[in-house]
From TrEMBL:
Belongs to the Lgt family. Catalyzes the transfer of the diacylglyceryl group from phosphatidylglycerol to the sulfhydryl group of the N-terminal cysteine of a prolipoprotein, the first step in the formation of mature lipoproteins. This is Phosphatidylglycerol--prolipoprotein diacylglyceryl transferase. Keywords: Cell membrane, Lipoprotein, Membrane, Transferase, Transmembrane, Transmembrane helix. It comes from Solitalea longa.
Length: 277
């Protein structure tokens, strides 16, 4: 009995002349679309106008793409991209980093909080990371369809042979994209359930701290199963993804300790505006 799955799925859904629709692009966009729908419900429940969400979505898209692209260029291939700076703009050639996206989102939401919404920064982060977890699952499924960011060679029964990337003699590997996607789906469910259970008595920053600790903690450990993404990682005890995960986990722990001591807030603006009985 074969102890692996042969993965030979095309990266493209269809092409029409120069127009090419890829699975990665579709899943990436789907993460934003579904996230918008969920945030729409959250904003409506809390009495925030929908035009604020539209502006938030714009900030999220721009900061995610710019952060992910710059993160890949500067964290993983700085020598190449600093020597060829125009290549940084060529996103269609591939190369996005989740840690860079995290930094970009944090910066973009800070600007959004300060200049647009006037809502507390941690209030926004607590809610946006719920859909970011879902978006992360969609992106990892996109990586699966791209046959990229996979794991080390293994003999586990669910190993994948990534024929598109490694050719007909591809060795069975850990499908780490699936591991991360499943974890992100579970994280999304946990954060959403926590939000609805505690929304009327929330301590700012707690959901965000959970997100940082759980997501990047998992990322640190799953990296042990991944193949090296770039040559300089060979021989390293901890790869670049692990080193970049550690600060996020530490920030999450410190934030949780600090915010656990604060007073809960009720941000259900819609409820607060109802006339007294």
């Amino acid at each position: 009995m074969l102890n692996y799955i042969t993965w030979n799925v095309s990266r493209e859904i269809f092409s029409l002349g120069p127009l090419v629709l890829r699975w990665y692009g579709l899943l990436f966009a789907s993460g934003f679309a579904i996230g918008y729908f969920i945030m729409q419900k959250i904003f409506k429940q809390e009495g925030i106008k929908e035009e604020v969400l539209d502006k938030l979505t714009m900030y999220m898209v721009v900061s995610t793409v710019l952060g992910a692209r710059l993160g890949h260029c500067l964290f993983y291939e700085p020598d190449y991209y600093l020597a060829h700076p125009l290549k940084i703009l060529m996103i269609w050639e591939g190369g996005l980093a989740s840690h860079g996206a995290a930094v970009g989102i944090l910066f973009g939401l800070y600007l959004f909080s300060k200049n647009v919404s006037k809502l507390p920064y941690l209030w926004i982060l607590d809610r946006i990371v719920i859909v970011v977890a879902l978006g992360g699952a969609c992106i990892r499924l996109g990586n699966l369809f791209n046959s990229e960011i996979y794991g080390k060679v293994t003999d586990v029964a669910w190993a994948f042979r990534f024929v598109v990337s490694d050719g007909p003699n591809a060795l069975p590997r850990h499908p780490t994209q699936i591991y991360e996607a499943l974890f992100c789906f579970a994280l999304f469910y946990f954060l959403l359930k926590y939000y609805y259970k505690h929304v009327t008595k929330m301590k700012d920053g707690i959901i965000f701290s959970f997100f940082l600790i759980l997501l990047f903690g998992f990322r640190f450990f799953v990296e042990f199963l991944k193949a090296e993404q770039v040559d300089f990682e060979k021989g390293m005890t901890f790869n670049m993804g692990q080193w970049l995960s550690v600060p996020f986990v530490l920030i999450g722990v410190l934030l949780f300790i600090k915010q656990s001591r604060t007073t809960p807030h009720n941000y259900l603006i819609a409820d607060q505006q109802k006339p007294a009985a």
